[in-house]
């Protein structure tokens, strides 16, 4: 280890103040570029709809990775001579530092690079990780930011990728299936209710009618549960869409005499 | 092929019926597609930055055509003639065995002139193709009914033969209570319980119903799109309705010819501009949209503007001349920025039903009261929708249609195939 630190000392002894200034300028320019991309691209994407929005959002972390790699490639030769010995000394030191002091941070950084390659989630995706559901707002170097429906920002370290289940609702597309549930007491015409609920889904202005629409039903001791499955125009419409389906569905079911099931509170939430 | 009035039926928008599967958008180049996509993106980005809701205006100095000149140079088509052409086209398909169904379902994009033509069928003189007069089937006043009521209503209609529905979109509402009539009609057609008839259907309406009833394979036909050559012949024919001299239209910037298109018989070779090709692409072969843009692109010579309002003026010369402004110089309606879905809901509902009155628009779009009134007012100011004088129905304007379709598509709405 002493040899490594000795080599490292020799390595940086040749660094001049001019080289330091040059490297600092390059790093500052790269940081500024990354900052601008992270601020401007999501703003532009917000003005667009559909696929262009998703593609633009997904390009942000990729652009940032490219800028970081280019910066390293430019800065290292400015500071040191990129010989084999020098590289071994640098990476050996970095490996030791990361291994002991910043293990979890390095874990997240590496997972962040894997995220860009495997793309389990992209900006614009609606994901659920460890019980937190929301839209991926940005993918940082260490963590991803999601915004929940209640406008709370949740930071999810990329290292979660190794051992957590990640549910992705739209997986990079603008198709996200939504489910509206209706609980009715027994004693009604099931086929008629299924037809009515299918009509409700087809006539909601939020419905993407070119995607499949289906109604499934299940029987319970207390009655029937109907699940209307359909796609909203855009993933961000999902909550308004489910609300619209529910309101329209309840209205038409009431007109046709179907009774909503009400479960006793003690059964619904046993404490 | 000339009809009895001397009109060129192959140049007529409804003169060539094809299957929906064989419909193709007029050919475009990669450069034009990329240019169009960039323009659309820029238009979306500009929303909210530049002032909106300004009525479009020409960006050149030439005088626009007066109403009198427009009616002579680029009049609206003779829908009686189009109706005759349509029946003749259907008869030809039946004779050649290319179409053998009793009921012809003709699906066409908005502004194709299909409704206007079919509504005139009952007033046509009986012909060889249709010896008996056509019977118009009008929709009921109240479209909200149960399946049993729908069955009863159709039982009361005489569909035994030679019946016509000008627009199927008038027979439904996108509301759970307004869906009963069309499935009943289509099931009767599929079962062969109806006689010979013609149904006109907006492409947006059919897009919905082909998803709602995925097994409805009724072999819809559609008018072939107008490419540059057919557009040129059609515009020439329209001008010939009122003008007895041939129309010569040239580009205002470089003098290249737009009309007449090259005719191998006259042996004259002219250097033509690409205006008609651009127009065919911009309108996606839609005759109503193309005609609206054509009317707004035409300009009079300055010396002609004085004679414009005087129909008694004796015009000299062998040709009727006018100028055409380049498409890039035309400022067409642009879409409004909206932070909620109201604008999209309204426009989509209007296209699905080929126009709606305010009460039904509220019912279908779910936008009610003040928000609806405000949105309608903004859309009118931007020349994207207009209200029919007679019917009181709100409709998308032909000039606004291309931007409406494109924006609805980018906002995720299901759009038609045309």
Rounded radius of gyration of chain B (Å): 22 Å
Helix and strand pattern of chain A: HHHHHEEEEHEEHEEHH
Quote the distance from N terminus to C terminus of chain A.
Answer: 59 Å
The whole-angstrom Rg of chain A is 27 Å
N- to C-terminal distance of chain B? 26 Å
Order of helices and strands of chain B: EHHHEHEHEHEHEHEEHHEHEHHHEEH
- Work out the helix count of chain B: 15
| Proper CATH architecture of the domain at 102-218 in chain B | 3-Layer(aba) Sandwich
List low-pLDDT spans of chain A: none
Subunit structure (chain A): Homoheptamer.
Family (chain A): Belongs to the MscS (TC 1.A.23) family.
Subcellular location (chain A): Cell inner membrane; Endomembrane system
Pfam families (chain A): MS_channel_1st, MS_channel_2nd, MS_channel_3rd
Give structural notes.
The complex is a heterodimer of chains A (271) and B (418). Chain A has helices at residues 2-13, 17-47, 50-79, 84-100, 103-118, 160-163, 190-203, 238-255, 265-268, and strands spanning 126-129, 132-139, 143-147, 153-157, 166-168, 178-184, 214-220, 223-230. In chain A, the strands form 2 sheets. In chain A, strands 4-3-2-1-5 form a 5-stranded antiparallel sheet. Chain A has a 3-stranded antiparallel sheet with strand order 6-8-7. Chain A is α+β, with helices and mostly antiparallel strands and 271 residues long. Chain A folds into 3 domains: 2-101, no CATH class; 126-168, SH3 type barrels, CATH 2.30.30.60; 178-263, Alpha-Beta Plaits (2-Layer Sandwich). Chain B has 418 residues and is α/β, with parallel strands linked by helices. Chain B has a domain at 102-218: Rossmann fold. Chain B is built from 15 helices and 12 strands. In chain B, a hairpin with a 5-residue loop joins strand 7 (247-251) and strand 8 (257-259). In chain B, helix 8 crosses helix 9 (275-282). The two termini of chain B are 26 Å apart. The interface between A and B is medium-sized, with 25 and 28 residues. Chain A: Keywords: Cell inner membrane, Cell membrane, Ion channel, Ion transport, Membrane, Transmembrane, Transmembrane helix, Transport. Chain A: This is Small-conductance mechanosensitive channel. Chain A: It is a multi-pass membrane protein. Chain A: The chain crosses the membrane at residues 20-42, 54-80, 86-102.
């Amino acid at each position: 280890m002493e040899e490594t630190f000795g080599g490292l000392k020799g390595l940086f002894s040749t660094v001049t103040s001019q080289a330091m200034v040059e490297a600092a300028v390059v790093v500052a320019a790269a940081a500024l570029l990354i900052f601008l991309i992270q601020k401007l691209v999501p703003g532009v994407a917000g003005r667009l709809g559909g696929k262009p929005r998703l593609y633009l959002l997904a390009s942000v972390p990729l652009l940032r990775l490219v800028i970081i790699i280019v910066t390293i490639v430019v800065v290292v030769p400015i500071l040191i001579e990129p010989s084999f010995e020098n590289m071994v000394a640098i990476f050996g030191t970095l490996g030791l530092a990361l291994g002991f002091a910043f293990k979890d941070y390095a874990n997240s950084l590496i997972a962040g690079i894997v995220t860009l390659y495997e793309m389990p989630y992209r900006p614009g995706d609606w994901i659920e990780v460890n019980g937190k559901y929301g839209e991926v707002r940005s993918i940082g170097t260490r963590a991803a930011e999601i915004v929940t429906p209640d406008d709370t920002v949740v930071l999810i370290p990329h290292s979660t990728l190794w051992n957590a289940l990640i549910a992705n609702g739209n997986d990079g597309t603008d198709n996200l299936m939504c489910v509206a549930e209706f609980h009715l007491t027994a004693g009604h015409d099931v086929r008629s209710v299924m037809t009515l609920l299918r009509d409700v889904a087809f006539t909601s202005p939020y419905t993407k009618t070119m995607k499949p629409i289906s109604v499934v039903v299940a029987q319970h001791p207390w009655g029937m549960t109907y699940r209307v499955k359909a796609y909203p125009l855009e993933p961000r419409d999902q909550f308004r869409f489910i609300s619209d389906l529910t309101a329209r569905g309840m209205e038409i079911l009431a007109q046709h005499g179907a009774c909503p099931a009400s479960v006793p509170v003690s059964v619904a939430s046993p404490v | 092929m000339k009809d009895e009035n001397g009109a060129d039926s192959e140049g007529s928008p409804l003169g060539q019926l094809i299957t929906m599967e064989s419909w193709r958008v007029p050919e475009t180049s990669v450069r034009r597609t990329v240019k169009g996509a960039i323009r659309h993106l820029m238009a979306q980005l500009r929303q909210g930055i530049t002032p909106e809701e300004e009525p479009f205006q020409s960006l050149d100095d030439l005088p626009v055509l007066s109403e009198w000149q427009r009616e002579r140079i680029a009049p609206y088509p003779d829908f009686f003639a189009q109706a005759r052409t349509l029946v003749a086209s259907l008869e030809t398909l039946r004779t050649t065995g290319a179409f053998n169904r009793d009921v012809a379902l003709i699906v066409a994009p908005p502004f194709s002139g299909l409704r206007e033509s079919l509504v005139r069928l009952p007033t046509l003189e009986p012909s060889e193709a249709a010896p008996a007069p056509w019977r118009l089937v009008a929709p009921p006043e109240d479209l909200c009914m149960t399946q049993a009521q729908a069955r009863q209503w159709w039982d009361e209609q005489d569909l035994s033969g030679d019946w016509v529905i000008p627009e199927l979109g008038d027979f439904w509402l996108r509301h759970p209570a307004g869906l009963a009539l069309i499935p009943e009609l289509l099931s009767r057609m599929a079962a062969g319980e109806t006689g010979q008839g013609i149904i006109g259907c907006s492409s947006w309406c059919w897009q919905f119903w082909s998803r709602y009833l995925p097994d409805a394979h009724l072999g819809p036909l559609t008018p072939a799109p107008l490419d540059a050559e057919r557009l040129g012949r059609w515009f020439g024919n329209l001008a010939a309705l009122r003008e007895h001299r041939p129309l010569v239209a040239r580009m205002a910037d470089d003098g290249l010819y737009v009309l007449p298109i090259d005719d191998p018989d006259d042996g004259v070779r002219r250097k033509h501009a690409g205006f008609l090709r651009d127009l065919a692409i911009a309108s996606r072969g839609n005759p109503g949209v193309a005609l609206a843009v054509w009317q707004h692109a035409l300009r009079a010579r300055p010396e002609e503007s004085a004679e414009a309002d005087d129909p008694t003026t004796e015009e000299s010369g062998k040709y009727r001349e006018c100028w055409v402004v380049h498409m890039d110089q035309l400022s067409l309606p642009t879409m409004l920025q909206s932070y909620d879905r109201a604008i999209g809901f309204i426009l989509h509902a209007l296209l699905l039903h080929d126009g709606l009155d305010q009460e039904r628009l509220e019912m279908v779009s779910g936008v009610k009261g003040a928000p609806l009134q405000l949105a309608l007012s903004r859309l009118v100011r931007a020349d994207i929708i207009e209200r029919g004088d007679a019917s009181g129905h709100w409709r998308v304007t032909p000039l606004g249609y291309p931007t409406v379709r494109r924006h609805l598509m980018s906002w995720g709405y299901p759009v038609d195939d045309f």
